[in-house]
């Protein structure tokens, strides 16, 4: 039985928070968006999402945690729009189980009423595993999200077991180049080829791109050369709490 002590009470104890990692245009240095990342601080110690998210997915806690993230995201976007912080995009990770939640659309509709944000600024990151589900259920749900005006991206594109057919079947707006690929660009010509091919394909399909885990000048130059200008990574900024993000934003503009 999968257990993680305290995960069931983490929310009510106020141990969960939302961090923001900026995404920048490498040629203009402008902030083009941010990814919302969940953080769990238990007894003063951060537990990595790679440890608690899979368990939250297994135990079903991901429903409450995920809704908390979505609610927080709406509240943030609304405050940004009211406060003249022009953040073109805010991305939230969505687990398979959240996508299959029967009440997801109803929940989002309620949030759009409470926080009338521009839907096109909200972006959900799905994994390839979600997208590769060959079911009408996924297609229906994706079309429902698109009908709300929400944008969709595929996280860690090219690292899962999936066909490329879903890129044709589903209206995907953005592909995220995995950190695993970015990390190898300097050392490995084969990763260069694979990454350049993803970028070329995304561009021809009219999709946006964001490269993850960009740390070095070499990586940035290579990505720009092959046609990807949008970057996320420690080279620009680490994930940070809201107050730090606002300071970062103010400094950039
Ligand atoms: O930046 P970090 O190491 O915290 O994130 C690691 C991974 O954890 C992310 O790539 C993402 O897949 C997952 N993750 C982070 N926050 C969330 C969240 O709010 N919901 C879901 N489902 N996954 C998240
Ligand atoms: O959604 P996803 O699993 O891709 O989340 C991105 C993860 O990668 C987050 O956990 C974030 O903290 C981490 N990350 C973001 N930028 C960098 C980077 O430049 N280097 C490294 N090592 N990790 C990063
Ligand atoms: Mn992500
Ligand atoms: Na990723």
UniProtKB/TrEMBL annotation:
EAL domain mapped to chain residues: 1-253
Superkingdom of this protein's organism: Bacteria
Protein name as it appears in the record: Diguanylate cyclase
Organism taxonomic ancestry: Bacteria, Bacillati, Bacillota, Bacilli, Bacillales
Residues of the full protein shown: 614 to 866 of 867
């Amino acid at each position: 039985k999968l257990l993680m002590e305290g995960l069931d009470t983490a929310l009510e104890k106020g141990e969960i928070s939302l961090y923001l990692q900026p995404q920048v245009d490498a040629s203009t240095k402008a902030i083009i968006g941010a990814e919302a990342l969940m953080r769990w601080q238990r007894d003063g110690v951060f537990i990595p999402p790679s440890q608690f998210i899979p368990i939250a997915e297994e135990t079903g806690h991901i429903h409450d945690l995920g809704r908390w993230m979505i609610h927080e995201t709406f509240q943030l976007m609304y405050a940004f729009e009211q406060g003249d912080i022009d953040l073109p995009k805010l991305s939230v990770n969505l687990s398979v189980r959240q996508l299959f939640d029967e009440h997801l659309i109803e929940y989002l509709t309620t949030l759009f009423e409470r926080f009338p944000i521009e839907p096109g600024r909200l972006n959900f990151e799905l994994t390839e595993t979600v997208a590769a589900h060959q079911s009408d259920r996924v297609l229906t749900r994706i079309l429902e999200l698109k009908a709300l005006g929400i944008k969709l991206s595929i996280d860690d594109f090219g690292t899962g077991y999936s066909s490329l057919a879903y890129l044709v079947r589903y209206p995907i707006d953005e592909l995220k180049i995995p950190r695993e690929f970015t990390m190898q660009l300097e050392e490995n010509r084969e990763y260069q080829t694979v990454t350049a091919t993803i970028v070329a394909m995304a561009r021809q399909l009219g999709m946006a791109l964001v490269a993850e885990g960009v740390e070095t000048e070499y990586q940035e130059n290579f990505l720009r050369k092959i046609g990807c200008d949008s970057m996320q990574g420690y080279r620009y900024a680490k994930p940070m709490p809201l107050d730090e993000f606002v300071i970062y934003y103010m400094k950039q503009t």
